[in-house]
Amino acid sequence: MSIKQEIINKICYTELVYARINKKLKQNLGKKEIEELVVQLLSESDESFYVKTGKNYYVTNFKKKIRVTINSYTFRIITVDKII
Questions:
Q1: Whose CB has fewer CB within 10 Å in the chain, the N or C terminal residue?
Q2: What is the side-by-side strand order in the sheet with 77-82?
Q3: What is the spatial distance between Cα 68 and Cα 72, in angstroms, rounded to a whole number?
Q4: Tens digits of residue pLDDT in 8-26
């Protein structure tokens, strides 16, 4: 299984991350909408943009200009950031 597929299959969220994602993206999305957005971002991103640095994976989606940060041990979403 590729790391991309493993991350998509195992991804999980904490309660705090939903609010953090809305704040960072300046949105007001529900939990299901956020989860769908994250899976879409991960699915659309080429595996070459899945970079492991330290204990995190950084997945950059240049089309939507968003980077997703994921803990490499727990596969928890840490945050998302807009990129310029």
A1: C
A2: 50-53, 56-61, 66-71, 77-82
A3: 12
A4: 999 999 999 999 999 999 9
Domains and CATH numbers, the chain: 3-82 (3.30.2310)
pLDDT digits (tens, 9 = 90+) for 27-36: 999 999 999 9
Give the CB-side neighbour count of residue 23, counting CA atoms within 13 A: 6
Strand, helix or coil for residue 77:
strand
Joined tokens for residue 70:
């994921």
pLDDT tens-digit profile of 35-64? 999 999 999 999 999 999 999 999 999 999
**Structure-token pair, residue 61:** 């989606």
